[in-house]
Amino acid sequence: MALKRHHKIILGGLGTLIIIAVIFLSIMMYSLYLQQNQNYNFLNDKILELKTSSQSQINSLSDNILTLQGSIQNSQEQFQQQINLLKASASSDFSGIIQSSIQSVVTIKTSSAQGTGFIINSNGYIITNAHVLADQSGYLDSNIQAITSDQTVHSAQFIGYDGNLDIALLKISGAYTALKLGNSSNVEIGEKVIAIGNPLGLQFSVSEGIVSAINRKGSNGLNYYIQTDAALNPGNSGGPLIDPSGEVIGINNFKVSGGENLGFALESNYIKQSIIQISQENLKGVSLI
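User: That's the sequence. What structure does it adopt?
Assistant: Structure tokens below.
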């Protein structure tokens, strides 16, 4: 049966609508595709940018780490070279002791003087000669610094002192390896010793000698001193006198001017007594040795 005219018009209209709908949907899908493609490209660019930035930061961090490692390695190598030189200059009695001992020795600096000290407790307690801390007027210099073997400068807290035995107790923050105080009653004339200090500003210098005498009288009138021919110079004051077992048997105190190799160190047993007295007076309930 032939389609009537109005039927043809309706069918033609529907066909046109379908074509328009298809075209519209195609346009919409193409627009969505373009939008998604644009978003994809934008996201891809951002990812690439982040990758580039991250890689740059990683490269910079790697360079910094390498630089730091190189600096640390250089410092360690320089320190090891100094140790090796000291070992080479010392006898076999002390070749294995110097490295561990020096790490517990510090340079003491004030506004007007310089000397030596050493760590006697792992919590950073240091002893030195009280006269090292005095200014030109004889009063305590409040600006006290302790320089450890790694060249770190610490502000040192003054705890107390024993004026009769010329001992002062200080403290720096941190944890350290301490030197052990030996029994000076066992010291024998003729045994070898080393003195570690900072003579004339030369940090961590080592001199070797023997015990020349014991129970010598000091300027305080007490027979509490070891006489040694190990070279002592200004700056050695407050440094340790060490025996071949690595123990401290004295604290280097003074030398006789005008004489050669006439140095004196307060015996370690009296150092212990002095530390106990200072800690009892200023550190209630704290045991240092």
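The mean pLDDT is 82.
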